[in-house]
Amino acid sequence: MTTHTTPAPGTTATGPRRGPTAAVLLAETRLFLREPGSLFWILAFPSVLLVILGFVPAFKEPQEGLGDRRVIDLYVPISVLLAMIMSGLQAMPPVLTAYRERGILRRMSTTPVRPSAILTAQITLHGAAALGSALLVVLVGRIAYGVELPGHLPGYLLALLLAVTVVLAMGATICALSRTTKAATAVGSVAYLAMMFTAGVWVPVQVMPDTLRRIVQATPFGSASQALDQAASGHWPSWAYLGVVALWTVVLGSAAARLFRWQ
User: Fold this and answer.
1) Transmembrane region positions (predicted)?
2) pLDDT in tens, 170-229
3) At CB < 8 A and 24+ separation, what contacts does 16-24 make?
4) How many domains does the structure of the chain reveal?
């Protein structure tokens, strides 16, 4: 005799029932994990760069002009920002623009799953990847080169969250302004190179000439770099630096919300 069982409330015959947003997030997570290139550049490359820089003997010697700190100490916050720049400006814009270009977002608007679910999932995934990479960079710096852990943890976390928010807002703005995937990739690459410079990847902000440093500090990643460095040194980040990053977040987030089109 065959018996039939009724699934418990909130479940299906194959497992727990998921809401549309959770289902989209799960699907996007699987797709994201199948992209080894993105995983390497976001999660591994910033730590790899830090390890390579550590091979330069002079970078591991205290510098009087840096307050008896080492160059490698400065490059931990910089590598943290590099992970965010990779995630928000190189990885996310082409994905979202491709979804719109191929009509996926338009077709989703006729289903119970809203297009905003994909946007939410992509922001969540790339934000989480950037934060995971930041944690890895801090650990590599500590284990490989004895870099001190952030001396003011609450200030460091606040600066970190603001930096993640502003880079995702910038990436969303690039998606809003780009009609095609090629355009998103091109604009993202230009923004990526500019933000790498202002974050101090080539020349740490602390050792830039005064005039250039003042200009760079008016950019989101110039201020984020300074805020993270201050928190790493044990001080509460300057409200001026935090305010610049927050202001850029509001401006870019508002622009993305007004300009973004689902088709």
Assistant:
1) 39-59, 74-96, 117-144, 156-177, 184-203, 239-260
2) 999 998 888 889 999 999 999 999 999 999 988 888 888 999 999 999 999 999 999 999
3) 20/112, 20/113, 20/114, 20/117, 21/113, 21/117, 21/120, 21/121, 23/113, 24/113, 24/117, 24/118, 24/120, 24/121
4) 1
